[in-house]
Amino acid sequence: MMIADPHDPRLDDVRDLNKSDKSGEGLVIAEGHLVVSRLVASRFPVRCIVGFASKLEHYVDIYGDPGCPMYEVSRETLAEVAGFDMHRGLVAAADRSTPLEVAEVIQDAQTVVVLEGVGDHENIGSLFRNAAGMDVDAVLLGAGAADPLYRRSVRVSMGHALRLPFARFDGGFTTWQRSLALLADAGFHLVSLTPDEDAVHLADALEGHAKIALMVGAEGPGLTEHAMRATHVRAQIPMAPGTDSLNVATAAAIAFYERQRSFR
């Protein structure tokens, strides 16, 4: 259905994307063919897909009927509605679903990652993308972890934040760690990543364990002492002289790879 009027209320779900995040309205936003397709295939009910005629036709040719309203707009109309020139030419909005519980996402998991204080949305997106590519079964969010469904997180994750199960622990910075007992009780070996030279080598920390929970902290401060005390072992990634740390998503990716290697 063609919409020429940028003020048409049917376009409200994708309005002013450059000024505010739609998560505050209970929405999830996906941009581009691949991410939109992952939104449609996810547990989040899609409200509409908006795009250029060629992009909508291409989407249907590749993925079929999405089962939701599809609105055709010009590039100029979409730019006015979204607040910037959306060159990808395709955007979708969905409702949020009921949040998953920790017990639910770890039920059949063998490898999970736990995030504490990771507040940067691009890091969150990168972590989800890395986790999805390296056989991590779920992401668990401790205190201070940003929203994986924030528009930038979804975009950077290439839509994997919509596919990979995640759940949030209850509690603040000094209390959420108590819930890590749920993982220990479920048989997970809890490993906290730290640049501390006294920590064991990452490979040694992972060896021989069927179920692993890898925990990473924010850029700079890293994991709190409260969090590390709640794990079984503290592990380090050996670094070259003169360096002491990596970007959190990069460090996590190395840990995910080492887990893959040791688990096979």
Termini Cα gap: 51 Å
Structural class: alpha/beta
Would you list the SSEs in sequence order as H and E?
EHEHEHEHEHEHEHEEHEHEH
Arithmetic mean of pLDDT: 94
Spans of 5+ residues with little confidence (pLDDT < 50)? none
CATH topology of the largest domain: Alpha/beta knot
**Based on CA inertia axes, which overall geometry fits?**
elongated
Q: Please give the share of residues in helix.
A: 25-40%
Quote the beta fraction: 15-25%
Major sheet details: 7 strands, parallel
What is the radius of gyration?
20 Å
The strand line-up of the biggest sheet is: 7-6-5-10-8-11-9
CATH superfamily grouping of the largest domain: SPOUT methyltransferase, trefoil knot domain
CATH class of the largest domain: Alpha Beta
Strand elements, count: 11
State the CATH architecture of the largest domain. Answer: 3-Layer(aba) Sandwich
- Number of H/I helices: 10
Keywords: Methyltransferase, Transferase
EC number: 2.1.1.-
Pfam family, one: SpoU_methylase
Organism: Corynebacterium casei UCMA 3821
